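Subject: design request, 252 residues
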């Protein structure tokens, strides 16, 4: 909870690194500039995509369709909801966030209990493409609002932190998002037993550019997703401060 209070500051700090010569190859001008959004400001609103999936979003009270506005994606944890994530991160509170539009995607529901989990979690089928879903949201938001396409960020807690990392490691999304701030992330890798070696595990990570700004939070006393990684739910996950490299994540 304490770490989440620093998310806005973290995202503002990572924004500074974007001033370096980092190419966001797929950046496009947002087509929503100059168009009145036709929705209430400073209000949480649920929207439905053509695919049928939904998401929650919030537009700050001082939004001006003539000015390019930064955008934050915030991802809920496993079994949680967009509404609970908004209650947790406080990014829909003007005191903490006065100038960023915030989007809260909604994970799919899986298993006998219809639990809510993100792509990459043990409960989720391998063919689920939540990255594609997020990019569908991004297209929709850019068409409705005046978005600063060079300042699109992602953050999330627990499995939401994992989803944030998925976006950083995917060439499609990392080409359109500037920086990433996972909190207490659960980074699952599908190995078990003796293969579960968090310090040396490698997995596929193919970002669209060489340098990916990351601001990573994780508490050493986390009893749910341990800072040092280990076995959980018959899968392995690795938790640590990480730096992204093409094709792997390396421990700092």
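Subject: RE: design request

Done. Sequence follows.
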């Amino acid at each position: 909870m304490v770490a989440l209070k620093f998310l806005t500051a973290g995202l503002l700090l990572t924004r500074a690194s974007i001033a370096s010569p980092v190419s966001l190859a797929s950046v496009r001008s947002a087509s929503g500039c100059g168009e009145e959004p036709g929705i209430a400001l400073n209000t949480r609103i649920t929207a439905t995509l053509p695919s049928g999936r939904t998401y929650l979003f919030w537009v700050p009270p001082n939004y001006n369709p003539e000015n390019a506005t930064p955008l934050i994606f915030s991802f809920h944890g496993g079994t949680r909801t967009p509404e609970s994530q908004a209650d947790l991160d406080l990014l829909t509170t003007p005191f903490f966030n006065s100038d960023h539009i915030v989007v809260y995607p909604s994970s799919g529901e899986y298993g006998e209990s219809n639990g809510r989990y993100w792509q990459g979690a043990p409960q989720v089928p391998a063919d689920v493409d939540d990255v594609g879903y997020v990019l569908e949201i991004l297209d929709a938001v850019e068409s409705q609002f005046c978005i600063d396409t060079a300042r699109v960020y992602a953050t999330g807690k627990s499995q939401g932190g994992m989803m944030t990392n998925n976006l950083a490691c995917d060439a499609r999304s990392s080409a359109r998002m500037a920086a990433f701030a996972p909190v207490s992330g659960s980074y699952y890798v599908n190995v078990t037993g003796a293969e579960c070696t968090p310090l040396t595990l490698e997995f596929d990570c193919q970002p669209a550019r060489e340098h990916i700004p990351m601001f990573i939070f994780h508490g050493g006393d986390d009893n749910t997703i341990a800072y040092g990684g280990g076995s959980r739910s018959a899968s392995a996950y690795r938790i640590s401060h990480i730096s992204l490299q093409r094709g792997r994540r390396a421990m700092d």
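The two ends are 24 Å apart (CA to CA).
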